[in-house]
Design goal:
about 325 residues, Tetrahydropterin Synthase, Chain A, three-stranded antiparallel β-sheet, 10 strands
Length: about 325
């Protein structure tokens, strides 16, 4: 339910504010006009008034033709017309979620509803039909500056309800306008107290802060603000592009730091391994043989090993011994 506020200029620079009932998305102005009309006439009162008028007409016909009392016909029609008009404006029906504010000669008389009740036409007047369901008001703060002087456009939704219809009508002129303007002002103040990063990453915290501020302000009006949800935080396109480039550079810097840290750790491990190999040459030979085995264990692979490496690892004698062991019986070595 979104209040629509219209400001029109009048003479001598004054402004006149007119409030329209809240319109649901796609509903148009017809539901608002229908709700306003129910303050005066409703379907039940119109039906009862029509029945009384029909009964009066039938009674007049009976008196005129059946009883030959034509002198009573005008009085019968007049009584039926007055009774029907009285019932038409006296019987009121209020929905389950509404409260009717009744004034008698301009003075508050009480709240009525939900359901069917009576008033005295002309003497009593229904000034407001107060909807006590939870409502949602869309609030926008355009070009507001954050604490770090960044212009942002923030969209928020305020969920609120009227818990005391008497206070909402008697304590504030238009609670629709009051909620909307108070929410917009509080949103701008909250934007000025927070940095852009806080608004983007801590939307829930900002919404809770706004709800607390608004609830303290609207509680004396018989209205409570249940929650405030930050729907969107928009920044200028140029600033958004600059922030994107900065984030990309930061990620690249972190990647380079991680790569350098990994290389440092690997170099330290290699340095430690070299000290172990220097103290134990046999371990170095075994490691070299293992690396050679890993390289040639696949079929069809060929590894070229320098002669100096073969002599260092003592592979010449080992390969010769392996070749003699592989000579078939009765054969001769090459």
């Amino acid at each position: 339910m979104l209040p629509v506020i219209t400001i029109t200029k009048t003479g001598k620079g004054k402004q006149q504010e007119s409030e329209k009932p809240p319109l649901e998305a796609g509903a148009g102005a017809a539901p608002a006009r229908a709700a306003d009309a129910r303050r005066y006439v409703n379907g039940l009162s119109a039906t009862i008034a029509a029945i009384v008028w029909v009964i009066g007409i039938v009674a007049a016909i009976v008196l005129d033709e059946g009883m030959r009392r034509s002198d009573l016909v005008p009085w019968t029609l007049l009584a039926a017309a007055l009774a029907g008009a009285f019932l038409l404006f006296a019987i009121k029906v209020v929905e389950q979620w509404e409260k009717a504010v009744v004034l008698r000669f301009g003075k508050f008389r009480g709240l009525r509803g939900p359901g069917v009740f009576w008033i005295v036409p002309v003497v009593d007047v229904i000034s407001h039909l107060v909807d006590q369901r939870v409502r949602a008001t869309d609030v926008t703060a355009e070009s507001a500056l954050t604490r770090d002087t960044v212009p942002v456009n923030v969209d928020a939704i305020v969920f609120w309800l009227v818990w005391d219809a008497q206070k909402a009508v008697l304590e504030v002129q238009s609670y629709f306008s009051a909620i909307f303007l108070s929410s917009q002002t509080a949103l701008r103040e909250a934007i000025g107290r927070h940095d852009l990063a806080e608004m983007i990453t801590e939307r829930e915290k900002l919404g809770q802060e706004l709800a607390k501020i608004l609830d303290e302000k609207t509680n004396p009006w018989g209205i409570t603000v249940q929650s405030v949800e930050i729907r969107d935080v928009r920044i200028p396109a140029g600033l958004e592009d600059a922030m994107s480039r900065r984030a990309q550079a930061e990620r690249e810097r972190q990647a380079r730091i991680i790569l350098g840290t990994a290389e440092t750790e690997i170099a330290a491990l290699f340095s430690k391994a070299s000290e172990l190999y220097r103290a134990n040459p046999t371990a170095m030979h075994l490691r070299a043989m293992n690396m050679l085995y890993e390289a040639i264990k696949e079929k069809g692979s060929m590894v070229i090993v320098p002669s100096s490496a073969v002599e260092t690892m003592g592979l010449g004698g080992m390969l010769g011994t392996t070749a003699l062991g592989a000579t078939p019986p009765g054969g001769s070595a090459p």
